[in-house]
Amino acid sequence: MSLRATAEGRLPALIVFGSAAFWGIYWLPQRHLAEAGLTGGWATFGQFFLAALVLAPAIAWRWLRGQPSNLGRVFDTTLIGGGLVLYANSLLLTSVANALLLFYLAPAWGTLLELGVQRRRPSLARLVALAMSLAGLWIVVGEEHGVPWPQAVGDWCGLLAGMALVYGQFRVRTAPKGDDLGILVGVLAGGSVIALLFVAAFGDRLGPPLTAAGLTAAWPALVLITIAFHVLGNVGLVWGASRLDAGRYAILILGDVIVGVASAALLTAEPFGWREATGWALIVGAGSLEILVRPKATG
Hints:
- This protein is an all-alpha fold.
- It has one domain.
- Helices cover 75% and strands 0% of the residues.
- The protein contains 13 helices and no strands.
- Helix 1 packs antiparallel against helix 13 and helix 12 (255-267) packs antiparallel against helix 13.
């Protein structure tokens, strides 16, 4: 295999890991939105819906020119969008530690999907990366809080979010190659619907109801966050979703955790001691292993 082919094979992994790492600072603008008055789960709905509106003209233009839009895969993209929405709202309904641990069991679900559905035996490198990622996650947020058996609504949201995201990505990966822009718009549109349904069902648990004053104050930040994260930040995640197997993808999105923990320690009073540093190093090592060791078959 040529050096160029090897580099091209690693590119999707590198982009997904970097995109997930960028999402690690998402908590900061989210906190700003809440302080501005966009609460009760409406911030999540607003971001998904606004991002879908921003990209809708591009899809319409492609459709008018007879180009494929790939909008027909509603179930797959709604799974991914719904998983992201459930994760975002789980942070409002349970402890951050529980939400992180339950959502980021995703690498285990991804590897199980490959083993059970594709009958693909995980390589030694995958098993090592999986063990490193889960151990690192446990050290960072689990050791102090114990095993977060799902009990509250937020716990179940975190668990189901990881399952939905990985299964949606798995279906996108194993389906015939489609249009990445159409997949992204489908994720955002599906996420908007799930977010709206979630507000209707659990709005009273997600914080104070939305007010006109809160929406007006938060509007500029909402637009900026939507463009930065849900449009630009999601491009790499969606592009990589159709090019990486489920287990590998799920390990690489742990880049979110390492940047989130480090940025919270730098910008807030949250601790960053030996425990956080050890877990951080294990997760970085797992991600690096998945980037550097290219699987022999992409499935």
